[in-house]
């Protein structure tokens, strides 16, 4: 081989596919964490029957920071960076103000506490989706869409927990029945084999 080919081979070693997948998962981590935190907030609100005002505000600010950080490398020049910061700041302040309107005592009297958690998640989902659209970010838009789809899913799950519980009891009962039948069959066969001998 010539020296040029050796240099090309030394400098262009392809990274392992495993590290490429790890890098992809690392890039998606902020979005997954935000989605898990949003669903955990609704679950906690449903269990404790207390709205988590500071939690939702923190989550909205965190998603705003994720929006700025993910688009920062694409903003070329100080003017584009300042525009990114100000537009996202105004966007997320509007989302926070709307969330706090839902937490005013007069509005709170109209909504039960678990519904408040779902309303706040809906507002957060809408804010996240619109931020993704304005930033032309598929990941942020998908995060908002996933949060929005979590709202009816959580509501449906809460209403159908009783049916899930009945289904689980039915499956356990059927499993125990078949398991007990399997235990009796070998004993019957071995008794029949002893009688024939």
Quick rundown:
Keywords: Membrane, Transmembrane, Transmembrane helix. The chain is mostly helical and 197 residues long. The protein has helices at 3-11, 17-48, 53-71, 78-102, 105-108, 113-135, 138-159, 161-196.
Produce the secondary structure layout:
Blueprint: H1 3-11, H2 17-48, H3 53-71, H4 78-102, H5 105-108, H6 113-135, H7 138-159, H8 161-196
Helix pairs in contact: 2-3, 2-6, 2-7, 3-4, 3-6, 4-6, 6-7
What does this structure look like?
- The chain crosses the membrane at residues 29-47, 53-72, 84-103, 115-133, 163-180.
- Keywords: Membrane, Transmembrane, Transmembrane helix.
- The chain starts with a helix and ends with a helix.
- The protein has two domains: 26-159, no CATH class; 160-197.
- Helix 2 (17-48) packs antiparallel against helix 6 (113-135) and helix 3 (53-71) runs antiparallel to helix 4.
- It is mainly α and 197 residues long.
- The longest helix has 36 residues, at 161-196.
- The chain has eight helices and no strands.
- It has helices at residues 3-11, 17-48, 53-71, 78-102, 105-108, 113-135, 138-159, 161-196.
């Amino acid at each position: 081989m010539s020296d040029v080919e050796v240099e090309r081979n030394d400098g262009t070693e392809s990274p392992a596919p495993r590290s490429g997948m790890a890098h992809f998962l690392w890039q998606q981590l902020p979005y997954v964490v935000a989605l898990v935190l949003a669903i955990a907030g609704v679950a906690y609100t449903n269990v404790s029957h207390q709205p988590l005002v500071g939690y939702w505000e923190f989550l909205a600010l965190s998603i705003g920071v994720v929006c700025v950080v993910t688009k920062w490398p694409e903003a070329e020049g100080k003017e584009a960076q300042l525009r990114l910061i100000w537009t996202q700041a105004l966007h997320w302040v509007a989302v926070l103000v709307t969330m706090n309107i839902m937490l005013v005592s007069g509005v709170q009297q109209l909504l039960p506490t678990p519904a408040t958690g779902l309303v706040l998640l809906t507002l957060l989902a809408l804010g996240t989706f619109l931020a993704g659209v304005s930033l032309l970010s598929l990941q942020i838009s998908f995060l908002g869409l996933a949060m929005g789809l979590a709202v009816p899913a959580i509501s449906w799950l809460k209403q159908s927990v009783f049916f899930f519980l009945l289904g689980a009891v039915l499956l356990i009962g059927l499993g125990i029945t078949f398991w007990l039948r399997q235990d009796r069959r070998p004993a019957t066969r071995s008794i029949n084999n002893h009688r024939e001998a």
